[in-house]
Batch of 2 targets.
Target 1
Amino acid sequence: MRHILHADFDAFYASVEQLDAPELRGKPVVVGGSAEGRGVVASASYEARGFGVRSAMPMRTAQRLCPEAVRVGARFDRYREISQRVMSMFRDLTPLVEPLSLDEAYLDVTAVATNGEQPAMIAAELRRRVKVELGLTISIGVATSKSVAKIASDMDKPDGLTVVAPGDERAFLAPLPIGKLWGVGPKTAERLIAAGVETIGDIARQDEGWLVGMFGKHGAQMRRLALGEDDSAVVARRETKSVSAETTFARDTGDAEMLQEVVNRLSQRVAQQLRRKELQGRTVKLKLRLSDFTTFTRQRTLPHAVQSADELSRSAGELLRAELYGRRRFRLVGVGVSGFERSEAHPEEPRQLKFVGFG
Ligand code: DCP
Ligand code: MG
Ligand code: MG
């Protein structure tokens, strides 16, 4: 049996702003772009949520719901700094830390619990340490699986601790709305509700064949999750520090046009990864290997963070052209990006499928 924690900061961006500006504490605060610029709410303090303000809502709507809310622009560098500190606190406890985004992670504390400590005590101590050392509150769910721990961490927000004891998973899940279950997005929920299935307990009671008929393989998994059965492992991950792609040629070349084409292709691959991870970076790097195997990199830091293939291939292309002289021939070319700033979140994406920033 595993013991898993899911930890998630309360109103992360907004709480960091209240931490750094004490005059904002106790007040409705929203972080995000301006209403004039068609901005959206990235994070709303719990005071603002009392007025109905939510993440991913247009800032204009937020201001209508709560005119006295203070809007603050996002400061990704600061959020990342705090994220790194909390992740390292998690890693003090166990190397099995799987970050899901800047403000949340799964921790497998099975080995810690085997030493005689109760998982609930481990979680309580962790929450205390975060509060004392970072001045922020984090909510934690404790369970025997990732999916139950994640649902549990959300049950008692903000500043909550929810423990689902081994064996209680099914009873804990049963009364909850189906939308809480991993993989049940709005469309799936609509179809289930139309069939009279409203709670996770309703899913658990369904015949597996019926669910498979409706949703295929996914239906079977849905039922297992509804029963509290999930044996997926916590996969330790480090924060992505750079993203790159490279290629080795079958024959060395010094052909400028061909090399630029390769740079374009590599830039597309890098851009695709950046998009998937919702990252954008300011430092573009070109890696080159000559026919004599000498390998070196050239890099430049741009005034703005970039994500698109066009911008990448332009910068990497400039670095390349400076290296094309004499009879130089190349064996390998690579393109990379580092110096990340998180790109704006995509609020239209289903949140449960969001997987950002790490890999
Ligand atoms: N975020 C964002 N856009 C979204 C959702 C989130 O930019 N649509 C950012 C801002 C959040 C942070 O990610 O502060 C963490 O997301 P959470 O879903 O954990 O939301 P919060 O931490 O803000 O609130 P909660 O207390 O519900 O966890
Ligand atoms: Mg959060
Ligand atoms: Mg989160």
Target 2
Amino acid sequence: MNRRQFLASTAAAAVLPMPGRAAQTPLTLKAEAVTGQILPEGEGATAMLGFNGSMPGPELRLKRGAPVSINVENGLEEGTAVHWHGIRLDNKMDGVPVVTQNLINPGSSMAYRFTPPDAGTYWYHSHYISQEQVARGMMGPLIVEDDTPPDVDHDITVLLSDWRMEESGALVDEYTDMHSVAHGGYMGNFARAFLSKEQVQQGDRLRLRLINAATNRIFPLAVSGVAGKVVALDGMALKEPRDLGDLVLAPAQRADVIADVTGPVGFDMMTRQGAYRLADLTVAGRNGQRQPADIPALAAPELPAPGTPAQHLTLTMMGGAMGGRHGGANIWAFNDLSDLHETPFGAFSRGETARITFVNDTAFPHGIHLHGHHFYEVSSDGSLGDLRDTSLVAAGESRDVICVFDNPGSWLIHCHMLSHSIGGMRTWVKVA
Ligand code: C2O
Ligand code: CU
């Protein structure tokens, strides 16, 4: 083996071992001003931002293990950058201005090249003044297809968000008022779900890919008219499908559900005032072919097995309204520091397993997102629980996670309530 072959094969095998596959057709995403129909048909349209003329942006469907190039063109009047949320990719392609790239200036473009290692439900969104650009619509679904898809009649993406709007449909142009930053964050007064298909038949088996694309809102969800199970969270297959029950999705979290249609299908957000309808799926006709069958588990993701943790770190969320004092210079902080500093919160040698305790010492829930990796939430009995990229920690609670830091680079860790992130609740880790 010559020297060049040796380098090429270690590079390919290091983080994401998988058989080489042919490159996929290059894609283009143009960030631009769009007009969206957020309010019901017949009501006012909304001037907002989006990609390729639509909000949400187009659903990108990628093949696992095959290199892709996505050219992001900036048709906005301000800079931007796009983050491929949940994809374990090369650090340079992570889409975080200053940390992993320069801004894409108006009129410029950047080709993001990566090879998605894991099948599942992901999403993409702006990572520049994201509390504003995402609230204005810069997001879309990113699906990495299964090598062998489960046997379903429809694969439907359900993207949830909320918007602060006038009666006319115009967005209220206020994304960082200090009151909401210090509380639960920017919240819309109108919420809905966008479905990639509108009609199914009674008896159909569905795969639903639920994505919470809201900037700050936690969605407690109820799906009616189906009988089924949750099969994946944050893109990663569960070992055993789990009862659907009531799902809770923090901002950026995803859930995949496989379910059979038993009646009119509705998606509701559960609120103290009752159910708030986010979307309906019309049921017309009957599927006479489909036989009852158990809900299968999806293929297990190929992630490195955790070793014995070499470090145990604590990440304490601090600040906000009704919170105690902290040493940070902004509204929110981690471990007494607000915003990004030169020293990372954690430094790991590549491949090292670490345990991190997320402590929520504030009066609000937070959804903590780590870039470039998935981690295991540790269950109450101490065993490895779900693999996630965003972990919801309730006010006053804490959660341990275990992560194999196998992806070299500088990676953000921040609250995905984007108002909290801009309000200081962000830091980073270094893997070398
Ligand atoms: Cu989904 Cu740092 O983001
Ligand atoms: Cu938060």
